[in-house]
Amino acid sequence: MNPGVQWVTLLYMLLAGGAMGLAYDSYRVLSLKLHFARWLNAALDLLYWIAAALFVFRMLYAGNQGQLRFYAFLGLFLGVWIYFLIFSVTIRRFVVMLIQSVQYVCRLLWRFIVVVIGLPLLWLWRLFLGIIQLVGRMLLSVLKLLRWLTKPLWVMPVRWISSWLPRLKAKPWIVRGSQFLTKLWKR
Hints:
single chain; about 95% helix
């Protein structure tokens, strides 16, 4: 293997180590800010390491067709070390700022949706309820007026029947019929 391929592989491994550090810092900040459950955190750790291994293998394959040499491990270690030495704090602050920006945009979007969609729907609902109450009150007023206007039509027959009811109870055929029905009922 010529030295040019070795240097390219070392450079690829340095970049792969830096990318692994960047992904790890981003994942760590996200898991701390979003408070994942323990089981989900373990599953995401496993996924991170699987993805990192695949990425490193891909970079190694691109550099020297997947041959494992000492300088590949050295480049990977140096890439992670340089990343954590120089860029880690800045990247973590950037990820925190990015999370806060996304949360702010989401809150702003939610307020916009509430103002643009929610409030008009609430106003329409209140208008609908007001119309229903108004129609109900008008209908109740009309029914009360109809009851007052038709009172003579239904009060007079009731008074006429109620004046005959005591006399009907005293009739012998009514008394005998009610006694007969009572005897039938008791059997």
